[in-house]
């Protein structure tokens, strides 16, 4: 009996040692993952740690079989696609494309990869490159494209419709200058080991996420170029039906994603906007709707073939969206009146309100706060017209909260959480 117990114990010790050795081997091997040497930011996802810490959730049967980009990222698809699955997968962004992320992965079986593309119904593969070094391009899903040869794949993930694929070609042509993730200056064992991390390569911003069933804890830090005070004034917003609530007292150069988001829907110059803003902006997107009228002009011909102009008033229901800015006359003139919807401008002293709703009264009230930047997103109040884009998150009742605390005039501490129905 003792001998049997001893054998069982030894088998368990050997098995545990093998698992630990394999875990460490894969973790170290993941440091040899390529990224672009001029990466502006890196998102790292600890796949092995996510699997080990959320084993029960991982094996939950998925009932949604709808073809989507998120389905492409499932464990089952990766194992059947002839792609090496690293312990950590790293995505990087570039300065000229801050809202687009790329990842470089190795192909273990070109044959399986080809079969996978056919099974996914990918768009027609386009051979590119010289005969001695051929590579191909294919469009997988909305916002997901890939360049590849027999050794590597370059994925692109973006929420903005790219005008061309020059960014991917430039990264691919710079293959000889690719560097390992461990070679970046910011990469260090001193950083917390979290399930998901987002870090700027210059070390100015980092956000970490710890994932559990139904809850994701957020933490991080934000180094500022400008010194800021410790107390701020922010507009009081009605949040009963708010989908997105964002408030910022930071200079726009510290939050470039705000002007870049506006520029993606208009001809606005982000640099000009940053110079004209008095360091306050907020955004409120509600589930409530308002009616807008657009004039549609068309042309027809009379019996004598003379051109006749016809005007038709088209009525549409859009979400109530408000954005308040502090600035002077130049800012009021620079802010666009039309993005994806029509926006009305209301000006009171140094306050400029953009709103999809026509309001006769504009009387904002402010209150003191110690948080210079905050963000809340509640998918339970998703506008109905946006449901097609974010229905999976609405069904899971995703709620995102992110707050900042001033550590010193040039440094903020980030904290928050994401809650959802597991």
> Which residues sit in consecutive blocks of at least 5 with pLDDT less than 50?
61-70
Radius of gyration: 26 Å
Straight-line distance between termini: 45 Å
**Can you tell me the number of structural domains?**
2
Oligomeric composition of the shown chains: single chain
Strand content: 35-45%
- Per DSSP, the total helix count is 11
Mind summarizing the main beta sheet? 18 strands, antiparallel
Helix content: 10-25%
Gross geometry: globular
Mean pLDDT: 83
SS-based structural class? alpha+beta
Please report the total strand number as a whole number. 22
Write the layout of secondary structure elements.
Elements: H1 2-29, E1 34-35, E2 41-46, H2 47-53, H3 55-58, H4 69-72, H5 75-79, E3 88-94, E4 97-106, H6 110-119, E5 126-128, E6 135-141, E7 144-148, E8 152-158, H7 166-173, E9 179-180, E10 196-200, E11 205-212, E12 215-223, E13 232-235, E14 242-248, H8 257-263, H9 270-276, E15 277-301, E16 307-327, H10 329-334, E17 344-348, E18 351-355, E19 366-369, E20 373-378, H11 387-395, E21 399-408, E22 411-419
Helix pairs in contact: 8-9
Keywords:
422 residues; single chain; 11 helices; two-stranded antiparallel ribbon
How would you characterize this protein structure?
The chain is α+β, with helices and mostly antiparallel strands and about 425 residues long. The protein has 2 domains: about 150 residues, no CATH class; about 200 residues, no CATH class. It is built from 11 helices and 22 strands. The strands form 3 sheets. It has an 18-stranded antiparallel β-sheet. A hairpin with a 3-residue loop joins strand 7 and strand 8. Helix 8 packs across helix 9. About 0% of the residues have low confidence.
